[in-house]
Amino acid sequence: MRHAFIDKYSHLDSPVHRLDPRVKIITSLAAIIIITTEPVSGRLLNLYLYSAITLAITGLCRIPARYLLKRMLIVSPFILMAALFYPISVMPAHEVSFISDRRPLAEAGLSVFLKASLALLILILLSATERFHRLLMALRRLKVPAIVTTISALLYRYIFLLADEMIRTARARESRTPGVLRRGRLKVYGNQVAVIFLRSWERSQVIYKSMLSRGFAGEFPDMQEMRLRSSDILLSLLFVALLLLIKFLI
Amino acid sequence: MHISDGIINTPVCIAANVAALGLVYLTGRKATAEEIPQMGMTGAALFVASLIHFPVAGTSIHLGLFGIAGIILGKRSFPVVFAALLFQSLIFQHGGLLTLGVNAINMGAGAYAAWMIWRIAVIPESIRSIMAGLTGILVPALLMVIEFRITGYGTAIALLLLVYLLAALIEGGITLSAVLFLRKVKPEILDG
Question: Do B93 and A28 touch (CB under 8 A)?
């Protein structure tokens, strides 16, 4: 399995890349909260302004637009579904006529779409401008339990190995049962699932032994160098203040 | 089943994050160093196996496998689900950052419900596995519908349950055959 796409652009140099990962995480969360707490109706201007600011920051990151679009397109069907479903689901049955004004409903749908897309873009920027290990260590320093960051680090390390395992078990399954399965489909797929769990279980025993021999005691050592600069905090505060100004003054 | 940011009510998301982190602390506090790689690898297996597309009626659905996660990991399934979702959110943007707690509680509740059923020893193992597979999908789907309703979506959102009912039935069958296989080949995974 190819996994070069992960943190492919994290080595670039930009003002966003240079920010301390802790500052980046907190700022992203704050921005997502400010944007998503906008009500669904009557605040489209605010959402346009947030979009302009977020796009300006996206421009600063120097990550190719093609890559960002591709990542956004993967999740966008779900966002579109929610944006379309929201107005339809709140529409009272008796209002389904040609006379009633549909504009508020369309605006509500657009608002859901914009809020979710902006939050998604911020998340993509966060993960694309920082190496995954540094993000995990930053989360650990922000007091996220060690068990979460350690398991995530293990997932990052082994998931592609297991993905290859999955491809191999799928190939084995297909060569044993070519064509469309008519009967026993659940059994065949269930066995494939069981084999993946079995192999991961066996591999975990070996991994534990090798980790133990390197001195593992329940958590990976934190060897990242992180320096909290006042300029980072200032930039982050400026961004959040701008969003808050739009939220409360417009 | 992964809810993105901006789709559901933000205060609900924030409360769920606080609750989820508390639960991670409570259920993962006493995990030994030996358990950690096992949890990591089972989490990886869970994610990878959920990429399997099961062919059904001319299309295909991907598996959730929260039932089997509950059976194998028991109490430890919550920290694993939380960490796996954090990973997926950061790497693939499957599920948002703010909705991490909501998604973890939905799917973790599925795994816990399955685990509770699995522990009722008086029921035959085959029935327990089917029920674990079913609840592993239905409980998260039900919680999701409730969260959408709190956000203000209309009652029609409950139709989602129908969609997930089919997925749950398939999961029941898959869980049964996976449990039968593991019982024959490596029973200690099920009894650990």
Answer: no
